[in-house]
Amino acid sequence: MDDITESLKIIDNTASNINGNSTFHSSSFIYKMANEDVSIYKDYLKNSKRILSVISSGDQIIESITSEKKIIDCFDISKYPKYYLMLKLAALKALKKEDYVKLFIESPLTTLDEYYDDLYYENIRKNLNGIYKKYWDALFSHTDWYEIFGSRLF
């Protein structure tokens, strides 16, 4: 099953990405945000020109980019975090800081779906390319951000 089809089934609860044998696997959920203070990485990595990071929520990589690292290699056992990272990077280019915070941090607190979908995604998608644009276009065509962000995909 391709990533889009599987993601849509997970969002609709007609397929599961929960594996009783392993917490981490190829279709593990996406972390919405880092669960550690990523700002402290600057001190640990200040002399590094190249870093290796798990994608997870993408926050570690975004912090590394803002620290002006030259080369960032990233990986994740799950296939979904790469899509979320690209969405966040596109959002950083398209949105003001307060709008980025509203979308990725405050949106779980509201059901104002149309507000987030219309106001933000149309601007963000201009900065998405290839498979990432196709992926997020499919998800946003199927449902809204509140449902996506509140699903078992995350």
List keywords for this structure.
8 helices, 49% helix, 2 strands, 154 residues, 2 domains, mainly alpha
* Broad shape: globular
Q: Low-confidence stretches at least 5 residues in length (pLDDT < 50)?
A: none
Largest β sheet strand count, sense and barrel closure: 2 strands, parallel
Q: Give me the Rg, rounded.
A: 16 Å
Helix content: 40-55%
Distance between the termini: 19 Å
Q: How much of the polypeptide forms β-strand, as a percent range? A: 5-15%
For the residues shown, what is the average pLDDT? 89
What is the spatial order of strands in the main beta sheet? 1-2
Seen as an oligomer or otherwise, the chain set is: single chain
Number of spatially distinct domains: 2
Structural class: mainly alpha
- Count of helix runs: 8
What is the number of beta strands?
2
Task: List the helices and strands in order.
Answer: HHEHEHHHHH
